[in-house]
Amino acid sequence: MNGQNDNFILIVAGEDSGDAIGKDIVKTIAERGFNAVGTGGANMQRAGLKIVANFEDMAVSGFFDVLKKLPKLFFIKRTLQKKLKDCAALICIDYPGMNLPLMKLAKKMNKPVFYIAPPQIWAWRKNRGKHFKDVHVGVFFNFEKEIYESFGAKVSLIEHPYLSNAKICDEFKDNVLFLPGSRLPQVKRNLKKYISIAEDVENAVFVASRQELFDFLSKELKGRFPVVLREHGASFEGAKEAFCMPGTAVFETFMAGVPTTAVAVVDPFTYIMGKLFLKTKFLTLPNIILGKKVVEEHIYIYKC
């Protein structure tokens, strides 16, 4: 990789879980003598990422959220496509809506691609797997490895970031935790339902994954319930119970031995699309991996 345009690696994450994964990757990129350029949150930025777009603009969840942010998302996509022309390689972390098109374009340009936490093709739209032929992929579970290998991907099994270097957090111990989402639109939709549940339990604590969500929850809850800004890597071990938006949080609380219930409020279109296209019996990773219901799942329709 020679030339003045080969001194940076484009790395794209669009949500908090990807930001947590990307932090150490950014550090590794720097150790290899490259600059890390792209999108990521506070963790990746502290590690040295040079951002080219506002991370908060990428935090969308559900059909209507995407519609509202389409102009910003198109701008980010164009910006990343321009950067792709000059980068030495592309690293994608989750966020398939943005990363899949970038990956396809990078392959056409003969750019090296590494995709960490690729789309859940085992859950829906399995045909996307064909685009991963000869792509280097990093997954967390053996069943994912087997599926991607069947499409010709070069698959590595990597350790989930939340299973290593976990720190015990005293603010979680013996409390009932409420994690209404890692994206602001999710939190706004879920909050009323989560408050109604919290009112019926003792020692309810709301957990925010970053400052923006902490500020929002603190403002909306007005002291009714404590709000904790979770330190990166803090374990949920010791919590009495947890109510979480389906996703990484459910996996984390379950692996920490906390009785967990998944609760989500979704817009009608997203609910219908899920009913039509989801190929799994369950929504949450613990249930999917074990093949049985170990986490209760409750989905409610948001009245737009």
Distinct helical segment count:
11
Strand content: 15-25%
Low-confidence stretches: none
Q: How would a textbook summarize the main sheet?
A: 7 strands, parallel
Strand order of the largest sheet: 3-2-1-4-5-6-7
Radius of gyration: 19 Å
How do the strands and helices of this protein lay out in sequence?
Layout: E1 8-13, H1 16-31, E2 35-39, H2 42-46, E3 50-51, H3 63-68, H4 70-86, E4 89-93, H5 96-108, E5 113-116, E6 136-139, H6 142-150, E7 154-157, E8 167-168, E9 176-179, H7 184-198, E10 204-208, H8 211-221, E11 227-229, E12 234-235, E13 241-244, H9 248-255, E14 260-266, H10 268-277, H11 285-290, E15 296-301
Parallel strand pairs: 1-2, 1-4, 2-3, 4-5, 5-6, 6-7, 8-12, 9-10, 9-13, 10-11, 13-14, 14-15
Helix pairs in contact: 4-5
Describe this structure in words.
This protein has 11 helices and 15 strands. It is of the alpha/beta class. Helix 4 packs parallel to helix 5. It has a 7-stranded parallel beta sheet with strand order 3-2-1-4-5-6-7, sandwiched between helices. A 6-stranded parallel beta sheet has the order 11-10-9-13-14-15, with helices on both faces. The mean pLDDT is 88.
Short description:
By secondary structure, the protein is of the alpha/beta class. Helix content is 38%, strand content 21%.
